């Protein structure tokens, strides 16, 4: 069987279409129709990826996303959102979702997004044995472990890859579109995805996220990483 995917949506028609397209692409698919069932199936199946609708009965998708992230940082989550739910979409990304698809969507587009997220989660974007060090921040690329002042950081797949990419290119300013391409593998997409992930990274590695010292905003361009050397 292929990689396991949990699809969470309370609309049986949507779930069935998504299941058929994913199975046709070679994935092993399990369905859940509400929040409690999603959490139960996640614990039982230990899927490789979750497709998660935000509008769910019982426990809404945002809360499901938060609980899944508290249990497994490494499992990618692709959200399904309605067209007008921009605030929920941003909040979902802040809670740790890796990607999103806006309803109504093409099932083929969803399959491509799933494939892209899984490729990025399995990839090793840096050479084996490479350790990146900046003051008290250490990133072991081979083990995919990041620590700050000796304490391990809880980073999602995308957060880890984004941090590694920026640390490997200190002092260089990148456009958000360039980061989408390099880290997400997207040649197009909502650039607010990068903004949200940078915000989350700052909350985890900066002494004061409101006054960042490592990941700096380059106005009119995007972001650059500045080494702080001996400071923690």
From TrEMBL:
Residues 129-227 bind DNA. Residues 4-118 form the Response regulatory domain. Pfam families: Response_reg, Trans_reg_C. This is Response regulator transcription factor. Residues 129-227 form the OmpR/PhoB-type domain. Keywords: DNA-binding, Phosphoprotein, Transcription, Transcription regulation. SUPFAM superfamilies: C-terminal effector domain of the bipartite response regulators, CheY-like. The modification 4-aspartylphosphate is found at residue 53.
């Amino acid at each position: 069987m292929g990689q396991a995917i949990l699809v969470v949506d309370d609309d049986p028609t949507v779930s069935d279409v998504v299941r058929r397209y994913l199975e046709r692409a070679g994935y092993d698919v399990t369905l859940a129709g509400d929040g409690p069932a999603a959490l139960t199936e996640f614990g039982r199946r230990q899927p490789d990826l979750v497709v998660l609708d935000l509008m769910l009965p019982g426990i809404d998708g945002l809360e499901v996303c938060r609980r899944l992230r508290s249990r497994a940082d490494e499992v990618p989550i692709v959200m399904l959102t309605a067209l007008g739910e921009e605030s929920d979409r941003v909040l979902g990304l802040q809670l740790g979702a890796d990607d999103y698809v806006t309803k109504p969507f093409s099932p083929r587009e969803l399959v491509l997004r799933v494939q892209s997220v899984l490729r990025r989660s399995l990839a090793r974007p840096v050479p084996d044995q490479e350790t990146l060090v900046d003051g008290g921040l250490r990133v072991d690329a081979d083990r995919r472990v990041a620590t700050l002042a000796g304490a391990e950081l809880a980073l999602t797949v995308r957060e880890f890859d984004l941090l590694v990419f920026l640390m490997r290119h200190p002092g260089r300013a990148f456009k958000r579109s360039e980061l989408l391409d390099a880290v997400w593998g997207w040649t197009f997409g909502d650039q607010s995805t990068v903004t949200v992930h940078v915000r989350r990274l700052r909350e985890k590695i900066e002494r004061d996220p409101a006054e960042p010292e490592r990941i700096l905003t380059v106005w009119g361009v995007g972001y650059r990483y500045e080494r702080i050397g001996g400071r923690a």
